[in-house]
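User: For documentation purposes, I need each entry recorded in a consistent format: the amino acid sequence on its own, followed directly by the corresponding structure tokens. There are two entries in this batch. Please keep commentary to a minimum and don't merge the entries.

Assistant: Recorded as requested. Entry 1:
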Amino acid sequence: MGVAIAFIGTLFLTKKENTFSISRENISDVIYNEARIAILALDSNGNVDSCNQYAQKLLGVNEDEQYSLTELFDCSEEQFERIMNGKKLAEHLLSVKTKISCNIQAVVSRDVYGDSYGVVLMATDATAEEKVMEQQILIEKTEHISDQLVHTLSKTIEAKDQYTKGHSTRVAQYSVMIGERYGYDKQKLKQLEYAALLHDVGKIGVADTIINKPGRLTDEEFAEMKKHPVIGSEILSEISEIPDVAVGARWHHEKYDGTGYPDQMKGEDISEISRIIAVADAYDAMTSNRSYRDCLDQEVVRKEIERGIGKQFDPEFARIMLEVIDADTEYRLHE
């Protein structure tokens, strides 16, 4: 804020005879009247020559009336002198009229000879700022707790499946890599990460004997396994704070051509996050060791992703996955 004050003190003041005011030629109406900062021009005696609309609201003053600094704020002589000398106050000042606690900063304005002809004072609502800070801290704590809960639940899923340890974490990693290349912002990437971490949560409802069977599943066992997307979406349906986390679980086995499960969704009717997770999930399945086979060669995996474009996978996200594969020249992205 100090830079902004100096900027105002340097450019926005106009001296006329023995008074000066905030120049309406050098400052836009948006900055002057819509800024959530009270801006006041004080003469060398501490009298208000002009102020913006927010100052009138914050301090309960009328621009047409005359006020001195000591009539606006409950301040001591020492505080008055510090303000008039452009020195920062460590403490808040209480508005006499509105009883609002204010943060105060000031800049001395000087003429070409270095003589002071007044002060630009800026005041903000300290109470409101503290509430914003408290809310921000609460938001950060809530996000941290959510992050811990999602990762804990993800590890619970993986503890149930001895053959796919780390699968959800890797799928989240690959999904975020796709999302970054696609242009997702930080918030969208976090939503994608959470959905990917929890995409297999429905496996909690599948028998351990099926989850941990060494070897391929029978048709009957596979039919049971195919229930996990629906189970997962039902478990996650109450988490409204994380958009798409439930559909990410339900539709990550849907295919772009409509031959997937459980709802035979097709094309862009499948949620975007689910289409990303589907590619990342398939990639990790092929690049992980299984009880019945080892991790596939990178070129084999690449050909499978390419073969699935427009069939199993969304063409855009499959092509981005191919870019990720091509950039991984040392084949590090595998279990």
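Entry 2:
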Amino acid sequence: MFAALDLGTNNCRLLIVSSDRGRLRIVDHYNRVVRLGEGLYETGQLSQAAMERTMVALRHCASKIEGKRFSAFYAVATEACRRASNADHFLSQVLYETGLNIKVISPREEVELALAGCNSFLHDNVLKRNKTKALLFDIGGGSTEIAWVKIDFARRKYILIGCFSIPVGILTLREQFNIATLQNYYQMFDFVLSKVMEFEAIHRIQAEIVRNQVQFIGVSGTITTLASILLNQNKYNRAAIDGLSLQTAQLKEIIRTLLDQKFKETEILSDRYKKRIHYLLPGCAIFDAIHTLWPVNDIVVADRGIRDGIIAKMTTNKLRNYYKNHHYLLNQ
């Protein structure tokens, strides 16, 4: 069995799989909103309440792992722990209390794992073969990662041309901008747009879009939620979302609906989405800015990410230099 834990700024996620003759089967999984990065924008530290919430989730993850025999286990933390001045202390406490040895990874490592998680799209013919480039973006709780990728369909491989990390995600952007008016939404939009233009200046992606050579891969809760709204799902169905190919215009229309719901007080969305709109809108502003700069027509929705990338790399022994030193340690 293999296990991967992703401690993000907003969520704590665990995935446990078994492997039989190269085929993977999900044994157990866990996903809890912990908001570890709540208040980080103002204080530069993880708050006591956020650490306590997260510790509860990590104890639960440890209980799922304890007693099982693993070929490998790898646990990572991302933007909140990269940025917080007290992250090292918190992770030391996590190791002491739960036995989970969590490594803080760089933005590039985060991008590489997200790409590895989406690699099977090349094998399953999810991506359009007439387009040689992909722009992958992962909207997280504390940061947004962007990868500019060349696709080699003949060899079923991809080449990472460049990557970029914007230090804003749904949690930190919401704290930075008070979303009280439509103007606040466009302030978020303008802020993100100014950041992603730096990446465009280096890689000239717009020229490839004009040549119709680019498609999006959207890896985030924001994009999967927008797709779920589009499909009018009463209950989220991952099987119907993961690998779904859409027109970006469809997602932009959903964003307009969300803005109407928030600022014109129209009764459009179900209660399930109304409760999440405060966290959805920052993610929408990030996607809106990305798409405005890079108006790609096609998007593949990916309900996968770092956990899946870790599993993919472990099962092909590409993480062997990491997990020997970053594994599950049970304190007796």
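Summary note for entry 2:
The longest strand covers residues 23-33.
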